[in-house]
Amino acid sequence: MVKVVLSNNYVTRITQSSNGYADGTLRTSHFSNPYGISRVTDSTYIVADYGNSVLRIVDTVAGRVSSICTGIFVNHYITT
Predict the structure, then answer these.
(1) What is the pLDDT of residue 80?
(2) Left (φ > 0), alpha (ψ -120 to 50) or beta: where does 71 sit?
(3) Secondary structure of the chain as H, E, C letters
(4) What is the pLDDT of residues 15-62, one digit of tens each?
(5) Buried b / exposed e along 10-38 (16+ C-beta atoms within 10 A)
(6) Which of 20, 64, 70, 71 is the most exposed, having the fewest neighbouring CB atoms within 10 Å of its CB?
(7) What is the Rg, in whole angstroms, of the alpha carbon atoms belonging to the chain?
(8) CA separation for the pair 15, 34 (Å, rounded)
(9) pLDDT by residue (tens digit) across 1-18?
(10) Which pTM was predicted?
């Protein structure tokens, strides 16, 4: 289960009970070492899922997580 932590109505952290890779609802999706987060709109965020080498989009209104780009972090460092 993914827990989206809000501060002033903005996502500030994403936590979960176990690592893995799965798109779906906030309850069923899994990340592996989420590293960075960027707000796209008030309810949509892009998360760098470093452990899975995937960019994920989190829609807090729909309560969904989807992969949008894969294989991008291999042998690269993410800077924030």
Answers:
(1) 46
(2) left
(3) CEEEEEECCEEEEEEECCCCCECEECCCCECCCEEEEEECCCCEEEEEEHHHCEEEEEECCCCEEEEEEECCCCCCCCCC
(4) 666 788 889 988 888 888 887 788 889 888 898 888 888 899 999 889
(5) ebeebebeeeebeeeebeebbbeebeebe
(6) 71
(7) 12
(8) 8
(9) 556 666 665 555 666 667
(10) 0.73
Identity of the residue numbered 35: Y
**Domain-by-domain residue ranges, the chain?**
2-70
Query: Which residue is associated with the tokens 């501060």?
Result: 7
Token reading at 52: 């899975």
pLDDT category at 78 given cuts 50, 70, 90 is very low
